[in-house]
Amino acid sequence: YPLPWQDCPVHNGTVVPECDKSSATAYFWYRTTLDAAVSIEDPGAPRWWIALCLLLSWIIVFFIVMKGIQSSGKVVYFTSMFPYLVLTIFFIRGITLKGASAGLAHMYTPKVEKLLDPKVWLDAATQVFYSFGLAFGSLIAFGSYNTPKNNCVRDVLLVSVCNAITAIYASVVIFAILGFKAVSNVQKGIFQAAEGTGLAFIVFTQAIVELPGAPFWAVIFFMMLLSLGIGSQIGILEGMLCTIFDIEIFKRIRKQYIT
């Protein structure tokens, strides 16, 4: 405390112009966290802190999947349930914030004309394919461990319903927080929009700054993102590893070495 992206940096008594034109959060994300290059033609040197974080992430993933389903199966319970816990905490906090109702009203106000826009359907299909892990082989890989008499139709319906409910639940949390942020911005005369990674790492984190006890919310939010990322990576790798483990020539080699 205070969070490092709370205020713009000051050099020689003057606020950095780039930060002043955008926001403290956007400046911190692009200039401190990523230290993004000015152009793709001039990428500069690799950023050692990003490389170390990437290495650490892969080491964590290795220890989780090194024995196949024997090790990853137990961890998946945590990576699956922890985000729900964090979402619930944010939900309780979010709906009590000023402006949350405005965000939820915006979310639930139907815009029927959007159904005529092909891009909306493309975005929806992309989200569903990604959240299911279709074409990654994750569902097939984990399903291969089921007993021959397993009720696959029941599992498909259960996964589909849980996926839909989770998407709606997460949207409620996000729009409640964004409603709070939007009302706060209007009062300050600030207008900002973002999508993709910018939504998580700029807009949402900027909203966290304004919450009482901001460091606590920041810690659990980024722990949730880390948990979701590792959970996704486990599924993607499992689809490949379980296939390799079943190849006859590899069955005599310990799974740790293959992994």
Give a description of the structure:
- This is Sodium-dependent neutral amino acid transporter B(0)AT3.
- One of its GO terms (cellular component) is plasma membrane.
- This protein is mainly alpha-helical.
- The protein has one domain (68-257).
- Helices cover 68% and strands 2% of the residues.
- The protein has helices spanning 17-21, 24-33, 48-65, 69-94, 100-108, 118-132, 138-143, 152-188, 197-209, 214-245, 255-258, and strands spanning 10-11, 14-15.
- The chain has a two-stranded antiparallel ribbon.
- Helix 4 (69-94) packs antiparallel against helix 10 and helix 5 (100-108) packs across helix 8 (152-188).
- The chain is globular, with a radius of gyration of 22 Å.
- The chain starts with 9 loop residues before the first strand and ends with a helix.
Topology order in helix (H) and strand (E) letters? EEHHHHHHHHHHH
Judged by helices, strands and strand pairing, the structural class is mainly alpha
Number of alpha- plus pi-helical segments: 11
Biggest sheet: strand arrangement: 1-2
User: How many individual β-strands?
Assistant: 2
Number of domains: 1
Quote the distance from N terminus to C terminus: 40 Å
Instruction: Look at the structure and give the mean pLDDT.
Output: 87
> β content, as a range?
under 5%
Taking pLDDT < 50 over at least 5 consecutive residues as the criterion, the unreliable ranges are none
| Apparent shape | globular
Report Rg: 22 Å
Largest sheet: 2 strands, antiparallel
Indicate the percent of residues in helices.
55-70%
